[in-house]
Specification:
With about 425 residues, the chain is an alpha/beta fold. The chain contains 17 helices and twelve strands.
């Protein structure tokens, strides 16, 4: 197949966004009016280390290999450019959301990107990636372009295999026995899965800070995301080839088209902004036009059809449960007809949840439900900006005054000064 079903769906949604925002308006421009910023053009084409170095931050790339052979690129900023004192310990692990990558933590630039802010606050910052993104598209034995088995994974595997491998690696490299975990959306989801399904890893996390945690997604209100995930929940049994099973990858039709058009400042501020608002919600002025031009160079970052189907299944049944393979295979794998729930009682370290009312992907009712399941919840914090959205956690120009003070509060509470 030269065009994937998921790409077609997203392209249709993008056109809907265009018509919604410009239909009936006298809006036209010529090629002579195209305006681009050299900085964000450069940033949109940069990988993590290049992006960080564009602004004077020393960044390292590390290679982590999972138990089942996936090769993940993980990045480290040992000390922020604006850190004037000693680095605090333990190290911090920052994990991205669905269809994103480590680059999402830089896209808002040095004044707002959480990777910049956390490292500038004098933390040894590690920024992870999961399988299926462009930083996790390699395997020791499987070729993602020819082996369908490469794409036979969900966020369950990210939680049970990817994050444990990253934790082992970063603790070995730093000599630390513990770390602080910061997860966003899917990055929070895989943290809870890891605690439920593995032994010895969550005990190494002294506090977990979770932004817009996508555990149970029963009340998700994003129509495009609902359509996409439920589409794959129905169709994934009929997909077989790698080109069908890899979804919304970097370099694919949607990402290339979005990156091309959104580099233009006029389109970035209108059509591309409308596309983001269609997927999530709208927070006026929060995500700058420059950031929009940058982020579509890195988003979407790719995942598997089965992973999207997993989210769709959870949304349909309204439960935070394991993958549903159908009655027969469920009996074989789980010993029950219905997939078992993840055991949130095993998440017994201090946990912080952060959410907002205007988030269409992770509804506040699901966060309130999650709060009631956790045995050691120390705070469930509602972002005070009433228009704060799901995407704002990565891309807003206001992160430094909205969510970062609360993140820093808990980073400081659970850390101490280490070496220079």
């Amino acid at each position: 197949m030269t065009s994937k079903r998921g790409d077609v769906i997203f392209l249709l949604l993008l056109f809907l966004a265009i018509f919604k925002n410009i239909f009936g308006q006298n809006w036209a421009f010529g090629i002579d009016k195209i305006a681009t910023s050299q900085d964000y053009l450069r940033d949109s084409l940069s990988n993590f280390t290049e992006f960080a170095r564009n602004y004077g931050y020393a960044a390292e790339e590390h290679t982590v290999i999972t138990e089942d052979g996936y090769i993940l690129s993980v990045f480290r900023i040992p000390k922020g450019k604006n850190c004037r004192g000693r680095v605090r310990q333990p190290p911090v692990l920052l994990m991205h959301g669905l269809l994103m990558s480590s680059d999402s933590w830089l896209d808002a630039g040095p004044s707002a990107g959480l990777a910049f802010l956390i490292s500038d606050a004098c933390y040894d910052l590690w920024v992870g990636n999961v399988r299926g993104t462009y930083y996790g598209r390699r395997n020791l034995r499987l070729n993602p372009d020819t082996h369908s088995q490469f794409w036979n994974f969900t966020s369950h595997d990210m939680g049970t295999l990817d994050v444990p491998a990253i934790i082992n690696y970063m603790l070995n490299e730093t000599g630390s026995s513990e770390l602080i975990y910061v997860g966003y959306s899917q990055g929070a989801r895989i943290f809870f899965i890891m605690c439920s399904e593995t032994f010895g890893y969550c005990e190494k996390i002294i506090v977990s800070i979770n932004l817009a945690p996508a555990a149970r997604v029963k009340y998700s209100r994003s129509v495009p995301v609902q359509l996409l995930t439920r589409f794959y929940a129905v169709t994934v049994p009929f997909l077989s080839g790698p080109r069908e099973l890899e979804v919304l990858q970097k370099g694919g039709l949607i990402q290339k088209a979005s990156s091309f058009f959104c580099k233009d400042s006029i389109l970035a501020g209108t059509v591309c902004r409308a596309a983001l608002a269609l997927i999530d919600s709208y927070d006026p002025g929060s995500i700058s036009t420059e950031t929009i031009g940058v982020l579509f160079g890195h988003f979407p970052a790719g995942t598997s059809a089965r992973n999207l189907a997993f989210f769709g299944q959870n949304a349909i049944v309204g439960r935070f449960q394991k993958y549903d393979y159908g009655s027969s295979k469920n009996l074989e794998l789980y010993g029950t007809v219905q997939p078992p729930l993840y055991n949130l009682n095993r998440t017994n370290m201090p946990v912080v949840l952060m959410y907002s009312e205007n988030d269409l992907l992770v509804d506040s009712k699901d966060v309130q439900w999650l709060s009631a399941q956790l045995p050691n919840l120390i705070e469930s914090y509602k972002v005070r900006r009433p228009t704060w959205t799901h995407f704002d956690n990565c891309y807003s120009q206001y992160t430094k005054i909205t969510i970062f003070p609360k993140i820093r509060e808990y980073l400081q509470k659970y850390s101490k000064y280490g070496s220079v």
